[in-house]
Amino acid sequence: MPPILKLGPKGDEWAYDRGAKSYDLTRGDSSPGLTLRTTQGPTDTSLTVAPKLTALVVVDMQNFFLHPRCNDHPTGLHAAQRILEVVNKCREVGIKIIWLNWGLNDSDLGAMPAAAERSFASGLITPPLDNKQARNGFGSDMGEGRGRLLMKGSWNAKLYDPLYDASQPDVDISCNKDRISGFWNGDTEFAKALAVGGFRTLLFTGVNTDQCVLGTLTDAYYRGWDCIMLEDCCATKTPGGQEVTIHNTSRGYGFVTDSRSFIEDACR
Question: Distance between CA 39 and CA 51 in Å, rounded?
């Protein structure tokens, strides 16, 4: 059995070194690669990516999900701090940053399926005890200056302040989405940005791990992108959701690492 296993079609393949337990995802790119150790899945495994073929995808780190005026999400706030550190590292090594957020317009509201509407209309179905989240349907006025629910340009749909301050609009890519997944119909802002940028490896961060992060990650997996989840840069309030999503990602959809490996242990 040869020591190097090739996976994937010619010109777009991975190389796996059985002896070193290392994956090469660089596809022959001549620039220095970035080597990471995995934190979940088979032990003592590493992978090398090409920074210019790689993008950091930050999913839904918006006021609606994170700001105390809208939500109580302590693990999400912790993930935000880790993401800030990863963003700085990405800028240092030349990895593009993509901010992928809910950002609806009025035409989106008219085309929204009933199942998707129900997910964000819990306040109409079962009135809440308080008005903090005000989940009265996409486009509804959240009151208290928070704007219409997840509408593009509203305060609640804006990036959470520390991340907004760290973003660089002239350098980063910002994409709006109108479903759980950034790929929902295959011709979204996100899909177009990946195609134009020529990215093959995607680093996934954001909230919620088992919902919008997972939805976008699995769609990327189905379409052939390399998927790497940074586990401490993702968060969810779903009981058990974090653990199951991390497990399934490390065993099937791709790889799992964390911010420490990415920032401190990565070598070129």
Answer: 20
The encoded tokens of residue 121 equal 């209309």
Within the chain, what is the greatest distance between any pair of CA atoms? 66
- The DSSP output letter for 32 is P
Phi, psi of 249 (to 5 degrees): -65, -45
Which CATH superfamily, name and number, covers 4-103+157-265?
Isochorismatase-like (3.40.50.850)
Q: Which residue has the tokens 């979940």?
A: 40
CB environment 227-264: b (16+ within 10 A), e (fewer): bbbbbbbbbbbeeebbeebbebbbeebbbbbbbebbbe
Looking at residue 51, the DSSP 8-state letter turns out to be: G
How is the chain split into domains, by residue range? 4-103+157-265, 106-151
Residue-wise pLDDT tens digits, 48-97? 999 999 999 999 999 999 999 999 999 999 999 999 999 999 999 999 99
CA distance 47 to 39: 11
Within 13 Å of residue 79, how many CA atoms lie on the same side as its CB? 29
H and E: helices and strands count for the chain? 10, 11
Kindly tell me if the per-residue pLDDT of 173 is higher than 90.
Answer: yes
| Site of tokens 């994409």 | 175
